[in-house]
Amino acid sequence: MIPAAVRKALNISTGDHLGFSVNDGQLVLEKLPTALEWRKLMANIPSEKVTFDENGHYDPEKAPEFDEWMRED
After folding, report:
1. Cβ neighbour number for residue 23 with a 10 Å cutoff
2. Which among 14, 28, 37, 67 is least buried, having the fewest CB atoms inside 10 angstroms?
3. What is the pLDDT of residues 17-63, one digit of tens each?
4. Do residues 20 and 6 touch, judged by C-beta distance below 8 A?
5. Going from the N-terminus, what domains does the chain have, and what CATH number goes with each?
6. Is the pLDDT reported for residue 10 higher than 80?
7. pTM of the predicted model, to two decimals?
8. DSSP assignment letter at 23
9. What is the CA radius of gyration of the chain?
């Protein structure tokens, strides 16, 4: 059972999915994104086809949305 203070600090409620990992001997607990949060995140990623050359470069004129997305701060 996760203590109430931890649930409140992480905004965890019943049904939320959690990730557990160990980092330098410490247990790390994090709340994982919901399907709706993933959908919102993915909605901003361009879906145009991007072709890369052998050096890993792409043509910004052939993939303008991807180029704009890559240059966002």
Report:
1. 7
2. 14
3. 999 999 999 999 888 998 898 898 888 776 788 999 999 999 999 99
4. no
5. 1-32 (2.10.260.10), 34-73 (no CATH)
6. yes
7. 0.47
8. E
9. 19
